[in-house]
Amino acid sequence: GQIKRELTFPPDCVEATLPSAEKRRRLTKADVAPVDAWRIMMALKSGLLAETCWALDILNILLFDDSCIGYFGLQHLPGLLDLLLEHFHRTLGDVFDA
């Protein structure tokens, strides 16, 4: 069989960074509010990595809070589902080089 060797990286490189074992505090609506829904939708439309990551993170934080779920109903935000599906389709295309 093959013997696995421990890789050692120089101490100042990113690869040598160890993961933190402490749990992060869960963000809530109070930590990110107020956020304009139009800004979330425009960030998703942009297709830019930083913008779409921000928008998806904010959606996850806000949708975890039961008091915000009604605000994100599809009747209040027409086009949100289409944007999310378009982003998902584009991401799958990037992953599988389609």
UniProtKB/TrEMBL annotation:
Q: Which InterPro entries match?
A: BAF250/Osa (IPR021906)
What GO annotations for molecular function exist for this entry? nucleosome binding
Q: Which GO terms describe its biological process?
A: chromatin remodeling; positive regulation of DNA-templated transcription; regulation of transcription by RNA polymerase II
One GO cellular component assignment for this chain's record is: brahma complex
| Name under which the protein is recorded | Trithorax group protein osa-like
Q: Which organism is it from?
A: Johnsonita auda
Q: What is the lineage of its organism?
A: Eukaryota, Metazoa, Ecdysozoa, Arthropoda, Hexapoda
